[in-house]
Amino acid sequence: AKDQGRNTVQIYTPSMEIDSSNRFVLESELREACLRKEFLVMYQPVFDSGSGEITGVEALVRWRRRDGTLVAPNDFIPLAEETGLIVEIGEFVFRTACRDWKHLSRAAGRPLRLAINLSPRQFRDEHLTAMILQALRENDVDPHYLEVEVTEGALIGDWDGAAEVLSRLREPGIHIAIDDFGIGYSGFAYLRHIAVDRLKIDRSFVGDIGHDIGNPALAGALIALARGLHISVTAEGVENENQLAFLQDQGCHEVQGFYLGRPMPVDESVSFFEKERHA
Ligand code: C2E
Ligand code: CA
Ligand code: CA
Ligand code: CA
């Protein structure tokens, strides 16, 4: 029994050690990456589902390691959130995206909406509004073109505090979108008290469209809910023609997904937008 116990420990301990030392390595690498600004901002186009025109872009960050590999946000944002490094990374994203905005808008032939994600920790940062306004000002971007995307997770717990942050952002004209809409557990009642400009329907609902096992009823109901509240609605994760047709049919205002355009670096986005404009 004693040997067994030791075996169990021997099997278990190394993997635990790898986990915690991995986390330690990852954390110090991420700190280093913050100092050296080793991040890249990609832009995914968002389209008007009626006209097919590009209405905006969503900024999506990647960590570019020194060997050139790109790390997806889901693999470092949680750690960045936990350690607070997300505040610094977020500032880099805002500055970069505001700087790129005029190139993207020029290529598209009109001023684009610039959507930027905010994690809960960023949302609660007391310097958030000042940081954003400075990034906008430095790059001559009118606040009306900026839309910040927050999940319900950033709002719940302290609704009064959240409402205060939101009104501070809205005051200069920044727009607010609820990201991953429909998968939170907070119900919809908060929409009575919190002013939002857009609901972004989580891509899991879009994935239900046109699949034998999925049911498009939820996507349809969420679109109807948004429309009934006079809130703009965007569907994300559109991957095929069937999904696009369904969303258009339901009156979803805007669409975003690999079928229409993948996230691309700024220069690729510029050529993509120029091509779309002349198509
Ligand atoms: P999100 O805000 O829901 O962003 C949409 C994600 O869906 C992106 O993943 C995008 O590449 C992906 N996507 C877009 N179209 C499709 C599609 O048709 N099919 C599929 N399967 N996926 C699609 P990405 O870039 O890996 O970002 C993941 C998450 O990381 C984002 O989810 C967002 O929550 C977070 N994130 C990304 N950039 C930032 C940032 O700058 N700051 C913060 N705080 N979070 C960020
Ligand atoms: Ca988003
Ligand atoms: Ca989303
Ligand atoms: Ca998400």
Give your account of this protein's structure.
Helix content is 48%, strand content 18%. An 8-stranded mixed β-barrel has the order 1-2-4-5-6-7-8-9, surrounded by 4 helices. One calcium ion binds next to loops. One calcium ion binds next to strand 6.
Give short descriptive properties of this protein.
single chain; alpha/beta; 11 helices; 9 strands; disordered N terminus; binds calcium ion
Mean model confidence by pLDDT: 92
Low-confidence stretches: 1-15
The end-to-end span amounts to: 74 Å
Rg (C-alpha, Å): 21 Å
Task: Estimate the global geometry from the Cα principal axes.
Answer: globular
Q: Main sheet?
A: 8 strands, mixed, barrel
Approximately how much beta-strand content do the residues carry?
Answer: 15-25%
What is the β-strand count? Answer: 9
Small-molecule components bound: ligand C2E, calcium ion
Q: Helical region count?
A: 11
Order of helices and strands: HEEEHHEHHEHHEEHHEHEH
Structural class: alpha/beta
Please give the share of residues in helix: 40-55%
What would a concise description of this structure say?
The chain is an alpha/beta fold and 279 residues long. It is built from 11 helices and 9 strands. It is globular and about 50 Å long.
Helix/strand layout:
Layout: H1 2-36, E1 39-48, E2 54-64, E3 70-71, H2 77-83, H3 86-108, E4 113-117, H4 120-123, H5 128-138, E5 146-151, H6 152-155, H7 159-170, E6 175-181, E7 198-201, H8 203-207, H9 217-228, E8 232-235, H10 241-249, E9 254-255, H11 266-278
Parallel strand pairs: 2-4, 4-5, 5-6, 6-7, 7-8, 8-9
Antiparallel strand pairs: 1-2, 1-9, 2-3
This protein binds ligand C2E and calcium ion (CA) (3 copies).
